[in-house]
Write a structure and sequence with these properties.
With 202 residues, this protein is of the alpha+beta class. Helix content is 41%, strand content 23%. It is built from six helices and seven strands. The longest helix is centred in the N-terminal third of the chain and has 25 residues, at 2-26.
């Protein structure tokens, strides 16, 4: 009984913490401590942090970075790590043993007729889990939404992805979900890169 009580207390503690974070976002009290971040270093650090956890669960975590260095971004390192913690925890929860999850990065250029083109750092977390239907994709970032039975979990209150969305938007980015090539889910985070003129003058 003590073990059950301890587990439920931990679950409730996480739930209260998540709700307080979202309440802070709603009242505009969330603040970022931004700096110019080396994205290659950040992603490698995140990979090294989560790889042992994946190994313990029998799931392979892969990191796919381009040969050229990624552009820097202005961001809060702790908050970006929090975004990836949500996505990687979510991917691990729904990926069967002996399958894999891939973190990948690339760069795109957004072209605007009335303004300068800008570089966008595209970050994906793709799993080989059960995937999700189109209806679930529409609501997956809503608070307390847990999807269908294939993508739900007794210890998941449906707040993690809504928190990730709030944090991405604070970084002036976007987050979306689609089907991965292996049939699972692929979450895409797009973040604006530091303009080259600013990066070269740092």
């Amino acid at each position: 009984f003590l073990a059950y009580i301890d587990r439920d207390c931990s679950r409730m503690s996480c739930l209260v913490g998540d709700m307080l974070l979202l309440a802070s976002a709603d009242t505009g009290q969330w603040s970022l401590r931004t700096s110019s971040l080396d994205m290659d270093t950040l992603l490698i650090s995140i990979y090294e942090r989560f790889e042992p956890l994946y190994q313990d669960k029998g799931v392979c975590l892969k990191l796919d970075l381009p040969e050229a260095s990624l552009p820097r971004i202005y961001g809060d390192e702790n908050r970006l790590e929090q975004i990836f913690a949500v996505l990687l925890d979510n991917a691990l929860r729904y990926t069967p043993k002996k399958r894999s999850v891939t973190v990948a990065a690339s760069v795109q250029t957004d072209k605007h007729l009335l303004s300068r083109s800008r570089s966008i750092v595209c970050l994906t977390v793709s799993d080989q889990g059960s995937g999700m239907d189109d209806e679930t994709k529409k609501h997956i970032f809503n608070r307390f939404y847990r999807g269908d039975s294939a993508r739900s979990h007794k210890q998941n209150y449906g707040l993690g992805l809504s928190i990730a969305k709030e944090l991405v938007q604070l970084h002036k980015g976007t987050i979306s979900v689609s089907d991965s090539p292996d049939g699972g889910a692929c979450f895409l985070v797009r973040l604006p890169a530091v303009p080259e003129s600013h990066a070269s003058s740092r």
